[in-house]
Amino acid sequence: MEYALHEVLEVQEMTAFKTLCLTKSKTMKALVSDPKLKEIMQQDVDITTRQLQEFASILSNAKQE
Questions:
Q1: 8 Å CB contact between 29 and 43
Q2: CA nearest 44: which of 57, 54, 59, 29?
Q3: What are the two backbone dihedrals, phi and then psi, of residue 62, each rounded to the nearest 5 degrees?
Q4: Rounded to 5 degrees, what are φ and ψ at 11?
Q5: What is the dihedral of CA 34, 35, 36, 42, to 10 degrees?
Q6: Are 11 and 58 in contact (CB under 8 A)?
Q7: Strand positions, DSSP E, 1-65
Q8: Which PANTHER family does the UniProt entry name for this protein?
Q9: What is the pLDDT of residues 31-58, one digit of tens each?
Q10: Is the entire prediction scored with pTM above 0.70?
């Protein structure tokens, strides 16, 4: 699929933001003592990791064309 330049840039921006969120969640999770909050943060880590994989796939396909 062919993407316009602004679409690729938006995905790159979202990737940068989600990477920052992932780093923060992983770091803060180590400091949290509440088990429920840790579980929520782990869910966030899992979801964000999947999203970043999807973004990587989109960007990879965009650069091949």
A1: no
A2: 29
A3: -70, -35
A4: -65, -40
A5: 110
A6: yes
A7: none
A8: SPORE COAT PROTEIN F-LIKE PROTEIN YHCQ
A9: 999 999 999 999 999 999 999 999 999 9
A10: yes
